Amino acid sequence: MSSSPSMTLNGKVVNFTPGDTILNVAQSNAVDIPTLCHDDRLDPAGACRMCLVEIDGWRRLAPSCATPATDGMVVQSENNRVQRHQKALLGLYLTDHPKEPSDPEPGPRSDIYRMAEEIGAPQDWSRMGSVRAKRDGDRNPFIQFRSELCIQCAQCTRYCEEIEGVSAITLTGRGAHTTISTVDQVSLLDSTCELCGGCIDVCPTGAMVEKIPRTTGARPDHELEKVRTTCNYCGVGCQMDLNVDPSGNEGRGKVVKVTSPSTDTLPNYGNLCVKGRFAYEFLDHPDRLTEPLVRGEDGKLHETTWEVALSRAAQGLLSVKEKRGNDAIALISSSRCTVEENYLMQKTARAIFKTNNIHQCAAT
User: Fold this and answer.
1) Rounded to the nearest 10 degrees, how much is the dihedral formed by the CA atoms of 77, 86, 98, 278?
2) Omega before 267 within 30 of 0, i.e. cis
3) Shortest CA distance to 73 belongs to which of 82, 83, 64, 85?
């Protein structure tokens, strides 16, 4: 029986599974190789060049995300040559960003700043100026693209194609004028875009950013509290993080945006739809019901207690059953309910009202 293949990574011999890339091997052995364009859900592209490593016998540095590991390979990810490359590359990327990481920049903190601080990249490249002109705003209400911050890592376009399967955005132009756009530069509202916001989630620079928090003056990300919860818009049970401003709503807390959890979180693996990501403003809508209502003798709805409301509903259903029979009652549940809640609804229909007239909008 043959032994597992092995390679030497930063002077240490490590085993790997055939088919692994160098980046996979590094991650499995707690070796940090920085990346800007890599996502485990996407096919490797090697576009950002941050993950380049030195391989014995190879003349050029190689992208670890797209280079298969081979038996006997000797790899260095932390030597002077690699570090010089990372510092120079990050310095060039920072050309279009504010001069200092502390400068205010709307939206989530750029991964480029974090890496620049960790690696010690220079911060004085702004003298070079940008060759990418700013784009006019898109009229869609959720997503804003700031072209001057884009590094063409293509994570957003790859996500749109490989995960969502809609290919609403793509790389356009040539050379230094390459940018992200739609066909004929139409609005996302006029394209195949489903406004899922996945492009915002995967963007490492803040070039793709959510509009709502920026227009409402939300606090920076590091001042927000994240609360893990389950989306209630359908029965899939997607996990998501509510980003809460603790000082909002007179100190009661206010949800200012929704973000995806890690890509290994079930059942949605970090993906969200347009409702889950953007339809959260109902939480503080002035027309939102906060108390149960019952109709009084004057024909108008009045606030009451849950005990009174449930009692009135039960009396009404039992009255219909008594006057017109079991099959005069039909119950409709919702895909926004949990499996357990839908089970209780059908149990109520069949065990209490003795009817099979029970339906759920998702028909599950």
Assistant:
1) -40
2) yes
3) 64
Verify that 189 and 134 share a domain, yes or no: yes
Question: Under 8 Å CB-to-CB from 305, ≥6 apart: which residues?
Answer: 292
CATH number for the domain including 51?
3.10.20.740
Residue 146's domain comprises 130-215
Residue at 99 is within a domain: no
Domain of 145, CATH number, reads: 3.30.70.20
3-state secondary structure of 141: coil
Helices vs. strands in the chain: H and E counts, helices first: 9, 16
The residues facing 21 across adjacent strands are: 68
- Taking only the tens of pLDDT, the chain with its 364 residues reads 457 899 999 999 999 999 999 999 999 999 999 999 999 999 999 999 999 999 999 999 999 999 999 999 999 999 999 999 999 999 888 887 766 555 444 555 678 888 988 898 876 655 555 555 566 679 999 999 988 889 999 999 999 999 999 999 999 998 888 999 999 999 999 999 999 999 999 999 989 999 988 878 778 887 899 999 999 888 788 999 999 999 888 888 999 999 999 999 999 999 999 999 999 999 989 899 999 999 999 999 999 999 999 999 999 999 999 999 999 999 999 877 878 888 999 999 999 999 999 998 776 5
Whether residue 30 lies inside any domain: the answer is yes
| Alpha-carbon distance values, 188 to 51, 138, 168, 172, 179 (Å) | 32, 7, 7, 15, 15
Query: CA 167 → CA 157, 195, 273, distances in Å?
Result: 7, 12, 16
Which three-class secondary structure state does DSSP give residue 267? coil
- Record the pTM: 0.85
Which two structure tokens, joined as six digits, stand for 202? 């995967």
- Same domain for 194 and 237? no
Are residues 274 and 230 located together in one domain of the fold? yes
* Nearest Cα to Cα of residue 25 among 68, 86, 81, 79: 68
Q: Three-state DSSP class for 193? A: coil
Residue 121 lies in a domain: no
Shared domain for 149 and 186, answered yes or no, is yes
The count of domains in the chain is 4
